[in-house]
Amino acid sequence: MRTSLRATVVAAATALMVLAGTFGARDASTAENLSDAEFFRLLDYGVAGLGQVQAAVQKGDYAAAKRELLAYYRARPANDAGKFTHKDWPGVLELTPDHIWTLGSGEAYLTTARFGTQEAAVSADVTSAITGRTAGFLLMARIKDPVTVVVNSREKASGKPALRLTLDDGSVRTLNPTADTYIKAGADAGTAYGAKDQLQVRDQGAGPFTAETRKAFLQFDLTGVSGVRNATLTLTGRADAAKDVMVFSNSETFVESTRTWKNTVQNTYSWQGDPGGFDWLLPTGADKEYWYQLARFFFAGPLATAYQKTADEKYADALIGTMTDFISDADGYGTEYGAGSYPRSLDTARRLDNWTAAYEILRTSPSLDAEENVQILKTMYRSGLHLQGNVHDSPNWMQTQKISLLHAAVYLPEFTAAAGWRTNAADFLAAQLNDSTYPDGGYREATSGYARGYVAQYVDLVEFMKQHGIAFPATEKLRALGHFLMDQTLPNGYTANYGDSGSDDQRSILRRLGELLGDQELIYVGTSGKAGTKPQHVAARYPDTRVAVSRSGWSAADSYLRYNIDRGPHSHPDELSLVTYAHGRELLVDPGTYSYSSDPRSDWLRKTTEAHNTVEVDNLPQNNTAAGEITHFVSNPAFDLISGNTDASAKAWHARSVLTLRSGVSLVSDQLKPRDTATHRYEQNWHFLPDANPVQAATSKAAVTKFASGANLTVVPADPEKLTAQVRNGYYSPAFYHVSDAKYASYVKQGKGNATFDTLLLPAPAAADDAVRINRLAVGTLTPDLATALDIRYGDGGRGTYYKSWASKAARSFGSYSFDGKMLYVQEGAVQSLVMYDGSSVKRAGKVLLTSPVTVNDVAATYAGSTLRVDGRGLTASTDPAKAIGIAAPNATEVLLNGIRVTFSRTGDLVYAAAAP
């Protein structure tokens, strides 16, 4: 059924004026509405097949010209229209033709259930939600009419909502909700109904909602549930008249006693039955991305593809009708924002890509008439003209704009402007990599998802350009960006979450880019080692991007740490934050974003420093545009040492040093220098996954995770007696529009003068070590902000000693040790190891463990049984005691230098096999 076109352009423009701050000023290159005469002058009649169109135009018969133009496009051979931005979208085929739209994947349409006039149990198959680990549901009216559905809530004595789970072993579990409620618009928008014994569902009237709209939400707890074969949601209820209710999965936790219409960020709205269809504006209470994504036509791909597969005209008719409705209502005819550019240039680009790909399928549909065909082509032309001239600061915006422009230029050579579009887009996209990346190859937008998407679009672009004989000269810049993405990748192939983003598998992108460039390292990481060549490095520093990564290797079982002082669009106030992974799991996470709305959870995740693994000063967010740098990056085959600092906190300068061993064990030292003599509050936070179940040890105040299976982490603070420690409630968002409750460990110090935190991060492949203890060792009369030393007692009986100097290098004693360098960690036990930075002498109880005639930048010595392994950058084989490093290994019969067996000499307990440069 064709959508009725709305005659509300002026009203829409007036409403948009109120929100003018959302948009940039109108671009001078934007075209106004085109008359038929103007449009037909834009065609290149030198293109074969347009003769009949030209003949009709020369006669001034534009009705005939439109018919001939449609005939031309129906007969035109297939052309490359690029790709749809989305192959699928929740509920598109069932709901979008009825003008029901869902933003993102936080709410995903599952099915529709019918309630009759007599109270009865109604069941819905929700297996896809439960197997995807989504345990929340939204109920919403399918048809807009003045009928209310009443469903028993969990407060009801009988007929409670029930989730019946059939497990792989054939057993059955039935769960009742942990929370359920409904929300109501209008005068009751601030009322919470969580205590009611009934849930209500209703929707009626024109527009996205009215004062009578009611939606219901349910939440279940899947803790301990795995191996679900089938899941059925059963609801007991009735309606005033037979009523259909849509069931959506909902990836958001909520508190039933406080949830109201006012405080709910809603992602699904219905214009069902409204003769005007979508009004394309932002509904009150929706996430602000709602109208942007609606106008991008993400639903075009699924609808057009369904038509292509089935030849069912209902899909073509629905999509054509929605396109022409958009043109009538929102294409910006004469408005401040410019024809073809609603609501922003990024949305215009996404829409043009989807329309171009859709037009290739729709052009032969009987549902497309000659007038609609010209309307669509006019809008595509206006959009192209806008994208040719519009400029934006964001790299991903401009990349998206110019890729869309290039697709349109290749697909629509009938436009005289196409050649110019093609040159403009190709030249810009080749040059933009210089502007979008730092000299070290890192991406300027400080967000994992945007970096991945940016690289993905370049992969698609270069493949497209190759197919059409268009040169792309910036392959080495693209290779450098690909290696940056590769280095950020977690051992399991997913991206470490940072900035306005979520975690996603990026292996396919790395593989495709590697194949495109012939880069074997990218192919290796992109195929999880099944092809290609393993990268030669395990650690990487990006000094301009201000990011460093340490890892033990490139397999899923390896450890990983990301150290961040980045900045740029979409970054968070998270300077000096860490993310860690070990034994197959993320153990310290960036909690994510949730949405761009002003929801309190989104604001906490995106705008507070507390929501990141760093130190917050005086409850204030950092300024992530402030000065900062990575000052030290030492990568030894056995360890990495990363140090940096930032001015991002208004009240104190912050430096963080991290020693990370290849085992995944890390020691973190924070130094804070206030800018005045006042008392300040310093809060160091460590964030965990929702199912980490962290607990706090009473004496050590260590935070110990308790995952049901697999790897765990112990976060052990020094000086527990000087800290206020808590496991606090926070949030975790693995992807946009998904959010759940999560815990984090908080350590607070208050005082005047310099402050420090010293913290051990101890991963374990199974149960965490909850017996580990740290005792501070005195370093002469120096305070910990000048030199810190720790005695670490592990639960398995092992012992470690750690030393870090913030002051000038000098010979100092701590515990039974004396050392003249900047950093030292010694592990005692069956395997003895020593890692050292910038020193020449280590003694324990007066006995030499290491000595060198010159300062050694970095060295690691591991002594087990009869084998001594020595690792260090620049070390050369030498047995001369006057030049070589002496290492205590009384029973050593074999020495490996950087993994290669070498000869050695011995003087007493000291073995000489390597010399510093």
Automatic annotation (TrEMBL):
Keyword Signal set for record: yes
Keyword DNA damage recorded: no
GO CC annotation: extracellular region; periplasmic space
Domain Heparin-sulfate lyase N-terminal: 39-80, 265-513
Keywords from the named record: Lyase, Periplasm, Secreted, Signal
Residue ranges occupied by any Carbohydrate-binding module family domain in the UniProt entry: 173-264
Entries under InterPro entries matching the protein: CBM96 (IPR055372), Chondroitin_lyas (IPR008929), Hepar_II_III_C (IPR012480), Hepar_II_III_N (IPR031680)
Signal peptide range: 1-20
Annotated Pfam families: CBM96, Hepar_II_III_C, Hepar_II_III_N
Domain Heparinase II/III-like C-terminal, residue spans: 568-736
Molecular function via GO: lyase activity
SUPFAM superfamilies in the cross-refs: Chondroitin AC/alginate lyase
UniProt subcellular location: Periplasm; Secreted
Domain of life (superkingdom): Bacteria
Protein name according to UniProt: Alginate lyase family protein
Provenance organism: Kribbella soli
